[in-house]
Amino acid sequence: MTTININELMESSGVQFGTSGVRGLVKDMTDHVCFTYVSAFLQYLAKQQSIQKGSRIGIAGDLRSSTPRIINAAAAACVAMGYEPINYGFIPSPAIALYGIEYDMPTIMVTGSHIPDDRNGIKFNTAQGEILKPDEQGIRSQNITVEPTLFTDANGLVHQDYLSTESNDAELNYIKRFTDFLPTDCLINKSIGLYEHSSVSRDCFKRILE
């Protein structure tokens, strides 16, 4: 077993805390680094008595090329620490956060937001919403014990199948929030342009507008 201090990991990896989570270059966000950060988040929640063994942890991501790998690392950390990762697929950050709040479940969102594709990030949400500065300090103070045999010599996970079958519950819940708010047929006979680009919100928005 190897013990890793999160403050020291920040300095050695170059993956730093930003807004409600960590961000860094994809080449620096190895499976080992991502696994350790997620483990620290979960260990912090456990010490706060916010979760217990077997608790569900929601995971989602954006459309970056590195996101599926990082999602798998997050799920691996959940499994290693005795929690159940739930795969909510590729949906917007507010969708997974909202679902966690409504169903009393911590969630993890793998997203780089607006930064280039050679970077990515991991957002942490408690069951009350995005982590705050006191939560960040709590996560950074954790010492994490990692099993080296889970990883290759290149710091990748040996197995890439930690994630469960995808559930669309969080996406449908998010869409329903909009459709319940908007009056029926309020956009009838309107022509609306939807610029999709690389946004993970594009499919949700299309369904809402339809």
From TrEMBL:
GO terms for biological process: carbohydrate metabolic process. It holds the Pfam family PGM_PMM_I. Residues 16-141 form the Alpha-D-phosphohexomutase alpha/beta/alpha domain. Keywords: Phosphoprotein. Its cofactor is Mg(2+). InterPro entries: A-D-PHexomutase_a/b/a-I, A-D-PHexomutase_a/b/a-I/II/III, Phosphoglucosamine_mutase. The keyword NAD does not apply. Gene3D superfamilies: Alpha-D-Glucose-1,6-Bisphosphate, subunit A, domain 3. One of its GO terms (molecular function) is phosphomannomutase activity. PANTHER family: PHOSPHOGLUCOMUTASE (ALPHA-D-GLUCOSE-1,6-BISPHOSPHATE-DEPENDENT), PHOSPHOHEXOSE MUTASE. Belongs to the phosphohexose mutase family. This is Alpha-D-phosphohexomutase alpha/beta/alpha domain-containing protein.
